[in-house]
Amino acid sequence: MPAANVKDAVPYFRVVDMKASLAFYVDGLGFEIDKRWDDRGILRWCTLKLGGASLRLQQFKPKGQDAWKPAGQVGEGVTIYLECEDATAIWSQAAARGMDTPPPEVANGMWLAGFDDPDGYHLEFESPTDAPEDSVFGED
Question: What is the dihedral of CA 102, 137, 20, 64, to 10 degrees?
C-alpha cells in the first residue's frame, strides 16, 4: 500500500527575494531554518520549521541555467492553513516582532490569524475556540 509510506506534505514556495522571505518567516513569524542549500555563498533553498510544520523556499537565479523569473506575483491565490494550539499567540508574537497584520477573527469555530508573505502566499494559523463567530481578538 503506497499510501502507508506518506509521512508529510511540505509546501514549496518559489520566492523572488530570499532575504525578504526570511525576514518575514524567520524574523517575523518565528520559523527556524532546518535545512539549507547555499550556491556560491547565496542561500537558494531552505526548509523552515515552526513547531511541527514545515515549508520550503527557493529563489532561482534570474538568468542563466535553471533561471526563473515570474510573470506575476507567484503566491497569488495560494493559502496554507497551519493548525495550532493557539493562533492568537502566534499573532501576538508576530505583532511583538513588528509584523503588521489585522487581529485574528473567529470563523467556523476557529481563531484565524492571517499573514501575507512578500510573494503573495497567504498563511492562516488556526485554532479551535468557543468564542462567537465573527469575534475579533482583543475586542470585547
Answer: -80
